[in-house]
Amino acid sequence: EKGGFEHFMLKEIHEQPKALRDTMASRIAHDLSINLHDLDDIDIEKAGKLFIVACGTAYHAGVVGKYLIERMARLPVEVDIASEFRYRQPIISKGDLAIVISQSGETADTLAALRELKRQGATVIAIANVVGSTITREANKVLYTWAGPEIAVASTKAYTTQLLVITMIALYMAKRRGAMKQRNIDDIVSDIIKLPDKAQSILNGKEAVQHYAAQHFSAHSIFFIGRGLDYALAMEGSLKLKEISYIHSEAYAAGELKHGTIALIEPGTLVVALATQPELFDKMLSNIKEVKARGAVVMAVVQEGNTAIEDVADYVIYLPDTSSWLVPMLGVIPLQLFAYYTALYKGCDVDKPRNLAKSVTVE
Ligand code: F6R
């Protein structure tokens, strides 16, 4: 049942090329147009605000979604953790839009947020993986991630496919709102089509990541830093590591380090620096130099060709070149592998980490 893999998590990490392919299959036409016809009758042109609500890894996909929808479709987005959203008395107006994201479709906090959004007149789109789950039955619209069953507690292929669906929504909304030139949309869509092969090439090079994990599995604290989309990705890398390896880990917006967290950097502390966004690359280089000056060991993740990073980082993971908007779908793969191998070397129960359940149906 594990298809020759030692754990479900490793199997599911390797299923990402197929999961991405299946999730885009019926939604991208030969002429590169995005088919999300289920959303055609929603008044996206006039929407004033969009809420994104989810928990855990699905929330991290939502944070990426906020960047993409605001920047591509120029629609204001608020993104919340479901258990916080319900109690902050959010200001929702009739005609507002919402996206709830859930692999299982059964998470109690996300379901409660969905009900509150609907009660106050928002139109709710669910991004979910389990067909027929409660959230899919209660939402106004459903877009499935065709990731297939996810067994390991740590979410992997659900996250990448959630990112893919939300990217397609952002492009679809950008077109409906006239916020992007068709040529620019087409360029991104043609890069989307190439993602499964690029994901595969990262998996083919997994030994390098395994090697870094072998050197750091006894760390007591690891930091993930990034800016923009890389900050959103840092949150997911950090969660993956802590939940299965039990190593304390934090994600920080790189520019925020010097406002406090840099105090925790000691000689030998591992900092995973995500520097995949061209317009933020120079700023990231300065942040990396700041942590290096305090003795950190830096593992950097960058896009192919950015060799300038080798002057400052101790190890570099190169990602296949793609549109900077799409990078999180590739960049998460080395982070998942790093968490997996770290937990494996520590002897942890990778598929069933302590204290966690696959689906959280209590609030
Ligand atoms: C982390 C993880 C959890 C879930 C969260 C939401 O690897 O699996 O953080 O992402 O419990 O679950 P769903 O997506 O089923 O609502």
3D architecture notes:
With 363 residues, this protein is of the alpha/beta class. Helices cover 44% and strands 15% of the residues. The chain is built from 13 helices and ten strands. It has helices at residues 8-14, 16-25, 56-73, 82-85, 108-119, 134-138, 157-176, 182-193, 195-204, 206-216, 229-245, 281-293, 327-346, and strands at 50-54, 77-81, 97-102, 123-128, 141-144, 221-226, 248-253, 270-274, 297-303, 315-319. The strands form two sheets. The chain has a five-stranded parallel beta sheet with strand order 2-1-3-4-5, with helices on both faces. It has a five-stranded parallel beta sheet with strand order 7-6-8-9-10, sandwiched between helices. Helix 7 runs antiparallel to helix 8 (182-193). The longest helix is centred in the middle third of the chain and has 20 residues, at 157-176. It is globular and about 55 Å long. The mean pLDDT is 96. The chain binds fructose -6-phosphate (F6R). Fructose -6-phosphate binds next to helix 3 and helix 11. Its main location: cytoplasm. It comes from Mahella australiensis (strain DSM 15567 / CIP 107919 / 50-1 BON). It catalyses: D-fructose 6-phosphate + L-glutamine = D-glucosamine 6-phosphate + L-glutamate. Catalyzes the first step in hexosamine metabolism, converting fructose-6P into glucosamine-6P using glutamine as a nitrogen source. The active site is at 358 (for fru-6p isomerization activity).
